[in-house]
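Help needed: design a sequence for this.
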């Protein structure tokens, strides 16, 4: 009887795993969103699925070994397109994965329910349950980093679309004859204003003209990143201003489109590029608010994410209830 009582009292928790291009993070997340145990492993750089999957197993095993809680299941956030019911990774560009049956592999190894979804969706769920979008049932996330990802929450439900590929905000066409995008289309938002594209734009210009960007990196141009462009912007460098204004214009137009289409209460603007450049964030807000319908503008809040640590893993753990 004592044993029975004891097991009954075990707190409930779920395992969340965030697979990133550089790190795999797993966490034991309690129902209140607190993290009891967490493990970080470097993502093997060779992108061979079996090696990365072994690292995912190691990250999960480490948590299972230490845990004292009752585990409801395993949620995994992957950086790419995920087929929802099979949990297969259709395509993950950063991992160079095609059709990897991740859920099936995890189900074979662990006798626990397994859920796999896109990592941006997971971050969105975390903000909805424990972060800046708590009690907000209509909001859109726009994450600008290596790519541009998104998530859309409508009336408290994740908008998935018929093939679980809704909210591909980065592939909204903004220049019909624009540069070729990784997806095959041309002129997508991502092909114009992702982190690498913003840097590329600045680089093309600093090669021909003087710029403080070059001084900041001591002419080691491979060190140019968004932080550097932000610093040069603060020093009123012309190319930095041009670069960030152009990116803000594209992202701001994209955000305005989203506001007019979905009439959300909140836009969450996040990701590495936004974190690195407060000036870009401010300009995106100005561009977006300058273009939206008056009626949508009256209720919209444009904010940044609230959760910092473990956000991907916490969000992945929430897939179990979403
Ligand atoms: Zn595209």
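Sure. Designed sequence:
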């Amino acid at each position: 009887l004592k044993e029975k009582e004891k097991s009954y009292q075990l707190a409930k928790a779920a395992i969340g795993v965030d697979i990133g291009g550089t790190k795999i993070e797993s966490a034991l997340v309690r129902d209140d969103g607190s993290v009891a145990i967490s493990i970080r492993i470097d993502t093997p750089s060779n992108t061979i699925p079996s090696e990365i999957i072994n690292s995912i197993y190691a990250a999960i095993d480490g948590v299972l070994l230490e845990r004292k809680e009752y585990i409801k299941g395993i949620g995994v956030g992957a950086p790419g397109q995920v087929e929802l019911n099979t949990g297969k990774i259709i395509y993950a560009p950063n991992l160079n994965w095609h059709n990897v049956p991740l859920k099936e592999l995890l189900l074979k190894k662990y006798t626990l329910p397994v859920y796999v979804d896109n990592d941006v969706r997971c971050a969105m769920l975390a903000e909805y349950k424990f972060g800046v979008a708590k009690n907000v049932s209509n909001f859109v996330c726009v994450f600008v980093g290596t790519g541009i990802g998104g998530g859309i929450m409508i009336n408290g439900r994740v908008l998935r679309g018929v093939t679980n590929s809704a909210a591909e905000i980065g592939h909204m066409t903004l220049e019909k004859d624009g540069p070729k995008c990784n997806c095959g289309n041309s002129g997508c938002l991502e092909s114009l204003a992702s982190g690498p594209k913003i840097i590329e734009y600045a680089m093309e210009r600093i090669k021909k003209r003087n710029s403080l960007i070059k001084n900041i990196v001591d002419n080691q141009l491979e060190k140019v990143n968004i932080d550097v462009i932000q610093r040069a912007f603060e020093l009123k460098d012309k190319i930095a201003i041009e670069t960030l204004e152009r990116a803000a214009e594209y992202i701001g137009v994209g955000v305005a489109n989203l506001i007019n289409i979905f009439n959300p209460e909140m836009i969450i603007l996040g990701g590495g590029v936004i974190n690195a450049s407060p000036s870009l964030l401010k300009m995106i807000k100005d561009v977006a608010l300058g273009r939206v319908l008056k009626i949508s503008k009256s209720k919209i809040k444009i904010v940044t994410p609230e959760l910092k640590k473990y956000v991907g893993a916490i969000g992945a753990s929430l897939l179990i209830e979403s």
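The first helix runs from residue 2 to 9.
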